[in-house]
Amino acid sequence: MLHARLTTLHSVALILQLLGNDREDDARVLLAGSGIQLADLQHREIRITTTQEMAVFATACARCPALGLLLGPRMHVSSYGLLGYTLLSSATLGEALQVALEFPALLGTYFQLSLHRDSQWAWLRAEGYRDRAELETFNVEFCLSSLKQVCDDLLGEPLPLGAAHFRHGAPGYRADYPSRFACQPRFDAGENAFGFPAGWLDRRLPLADPVTHRDMRERCQQLNREFVQQQALITRCRQLLAAQLSAPPGLEALARQLNCSARSLRRHLGSAGSSYQKLLDELRFDRARQLLEQRLPIQRIAELLGYSETASFRHAFRRWSGLSPSRFRH
């Protein structure tokens, strides 16, 4: 399935810090199969696809099942860059949460987030997950525990929760939940959400500043527009390249198909932290994995991906995954 949403390297970097043990070999194992290189971590402006991020999540979760609960508290409000400072300068917790929900592209969530308030309780819900089913529990834990941390950071004190609900069943590490959510969790629930006394939404934030907030919010709106435009361009490029993998068109031909100049396309891809070759490699790698699972001969796979020589494909696949095609299939 073509999956071209963009995100930052921040979560991947946190995983390497948590599980990589400061060793390059461990880091390479965690990145294997994602198409992300260690050198990419030195350029935080680079954008990766959520498919790549999910590949790292899958590898890391196999090593540490409770990873979502460990990562969430490390996603402080400052991790969200410009959006984070916009939240910090908001007048109240409720205003900050509404701003966060206004810019899901900048928040980098895999869920549709919503905030509901009644006379007694406020509920922050995470719904609409559409990605890899085997990673849903991890992503729910990561999402809600990181949102709880953001609320704590904004307030300058822990937000007292009255309930934490999860659609999945109780995992083997369920004893870790109370320390992350400060309440007893409810599993096999009808929603993914946590609730807290509604009055906390009106709590004034210690770093509130209306002038700074207005300026930061305007910059968030501009950044969000740029980010959405970048994602639209990446999606269109991937669609065109995916249909021509057996005979890739090259940068200039792709630019003509998009009715722009090669120079303009190169510049726009660069501003999105990508490039023609990076997109082509990502698509070839995704398709190669699918074809290897279908047991096609490696020579035939090389042909379908536009390689004139099987050796060139083998070399490229090892660069992408750290494994030879035959080893990967095994």
Write structural notes for this entry.
This protein has 330 residues and is an alpha+beta fold. The protein folds into 3 domains: 1-64, no CATH class; 78-208, no CATH class; 211-329, Arc Repressor Mutant, subunit A (Orthogonal Bundle). Helix content is 54%, strand content 8%. It has helices spanning 10-19, 24-31, 50-63, 67-71, 81-88, 93-102, 104-107, 136-155, 177-181, 210-242, 250-257, 262-271, 276-293, 298-304, 310-321, 325-329, and strands spanning 6-7, 48-49, 112-117, 121-127, 163-165, 185-186, 193-197. The protein has a 5-stranded mixed sheet with strand order 3-4-7-5-6. Strands 1-2 form a two-stranded antiparallel ribbon. Helix 5 (81-88) runs antiparallel to helix 10, helix 10 packs across helix 13 (276-293) and helix 14 (298-304) crosses helix 15 (310-321). The radius of gyration is 22 Å and the shape is globular. It starts with 5 loop residues before the first strand and ends with a helix.
